[in-house]
Each structure stands twice: as structure tokens, then as C-alpha cells.
Amino acid sequence: MGGPDAFRPAWWLPGPHLQTLWGRLTRASRGTAFRRESLATPDGDELLLDHLDGPGGSPRVVLLHGLEGSSYSVYIQGLLVEIARCGWRATALNFRSCARDPEDLSRMIRNRRPRLYHSGETEDLDFLMRTLSAREPGVPLAAVGVSLGGNVLLKWLGEHPEEPFLTAAVALSAPFDLAAGARLLERRVGRIYAESFLRTLREKAIETARRFPEAAAQIDVEASRRARTLREFDEAANAPLHGFRDAADYYAKASSIGFLGRIRTPTLCVSAEDDPFLPAEVLPRAKAAASPSVELLTTRAGGHIGFVGGALPGKARYWAEELAVGWLERKLGDIAAYATTPDSR
């Protein structure tokens, strides 16, 4: 797998911020044809799933997006391209309140229950994994979580170490320590990143309080409106809405670093030391906390969900996405062993 020099950043994208922003500004959000499914949840809401179809019986990869992302996030689209090249199938989970209208990607689809999503919410993922496993018993199932989705995936793996659902998992740019990440995003350019998330998070919290009386009793609407850091937002809305005492309680209970030691599924974590969303000093702590089933690969550069290489802008390559699917391919084995005959596809 290589060490910190395994990834060579593009010479024309120096520094963590250009690495972080390049893909978001230049990549297409509609690179894959989806089949959307509305999956009813036990609490009377729905999960909107976007499926990449493929040969029946071939492995399926569950994809989890980051904060305020969706199945149309460019890194999810990039992973889908790599998965399609393998001849596999995929299911992208849109966290509650994050699904986009396929006809208008600027419009998020509202949910029916007074809850949103957060970095430690694993009930929906657990329900999805059990549903997919029951639908296709024996079919290899893997998962890739990105940023917040990586934290959710790692936490779920640690909560269910004995469950046989997943053959392998990958977490890219996971924020292992939420409190440390929140502090970093309160400094300098971090506040710009935080504000990009808060614009929609504030709107969602206020709208949820308006629609649901029970949520209005939990969310401090005025404090949510004034929030200028993720910690302030989590204190005012996210933590109380989802049953946490305060932001500190949420960070302590939802951070995946506390679950890494329990993971038994073969898992690859890929992080950059210059990730502007997570202090570099967290990475050695995560490695020390991880079980032998977890391989933590760190690179010196790459930013947050960046890892852009290539000789020229027109030939950009996304190293972490290629690495993730290539690693899963080795773990899952020869795709021909799982694919069905042409007549059954």
C-alpha cells in the first residue's frame, strides 16, 4: 500500500486547500445513471437510495457521503465510475434531509420525521445493511464512507463487530475526533469551510423546528440562526434534536476514534496529514486505537477528499477513489467468481 509518499499530488495543485476545492469546482455532478428507491423506515420516514445497477449477483458497494453532500457529490460520482469499471453494483445512501431532486440538484428533499442526520447516526445505515443483506443473501457487500460518511461507517462497524454483512470497508478523510475537527474549523480559513456547511444546516434546523412542534421544543432557533461555527450549531440544534446533552456530549459519543478498536471487518482508512478538517495529531491516536483489522494509510498531502494527481488539469486523477475500489477488488476477489451468466443479467 505504501507509506506517506504513496500519493503524489499534482504539481499544479499545491497545498491542502487547492487539493480540497479542485474537484468540487471542476467535476461533474451527473456522471452516473441512477435508479432511485424510496425505502420506508421503521419510524415512518423514508431513505432515498440511488442504485447503480449491474450484473445480477455481482458485489454491491454501499456509498456514504459527507456533511451536506448527497449521491450527486462529485466524490460519490467518482467512486461510482470506478465501481462500474469493475462490473459491480452500488447503492448510495442519501442521509435524511440530504437527497437531491434529480430534476433540480439545488433542491433537497424534505423528510417526514423531526430528525436530520449527524456524524454518529448509525440506525439508518444498520437498517440499510440488513435490508440489502436480506434481499441478496450470499452476495458480497462492501462499503465506502467519505468524510462524515466515513465516521458513520467506522462507528457502525465498531458497534457491530460480529455482524457478517460486510466483506470489507473503506473510509476516506474520516473525522475520527469530532471535537478536534470542530476546533480546527473555528480557525482562520476553517471558518470559511464551516460557513459553507452552515448555510444549509441552519436552514434545515429552522425549517425542522417550524414543521414539527416536538423539534421546536428541542432546537434553539435563534441560536441556530446566529451560529457561525459548527460547535455553535451543534450546541443549538444538532445535539438537542438527536438526544445529546450538548455539543461536547455529541462529539464524545459520535466520534469514530472510540470505536476503531472493536472493528473486525477488514477496513482501510485513508487520510492526509494536511487535511484542513482534522488536525494531523489525531492520526497517530487513531492508528493506536485501531484494531488489527483496520489499516490506516496516511499521506503527507491530499487535503480533504482531494488526493488529486495527474500531469495536467485535463488529466486529473483521483487517487483515493481509485485506491479505495482497487483495495476492495483485492479483498473481494475475482469478480468473475460472483458474476452471473449473461442470460440472467
Primary descriptors:
single chain; 345 residues; alpha/beta; Rossmann fold; eight-stranded mixed beta sheet; two-stranded antiparallel sheet; 12 helices; disordered C terminus
Would you kindly provide a written description of the structure presented here, covering whatever features stand out?
The protein is α/β, with parallel strands linked by helices and 345 residues long. The chain folds into two domains: 249 residues, 3-Layer(aba) Sandwich (Rossmann fold); 77 residues, no CATH class. 37% of the residues lie in helices and 17% in strands. The strands form three sheets. It has an eight-stranded mixed β-sheet, sandwiched between helices. Strands 5-6 form a two-stranded antiparallel sheet. Helix 6 runs parallel beside helix 9. The longest helix has 22 residues. The relative contact order is 0.18.
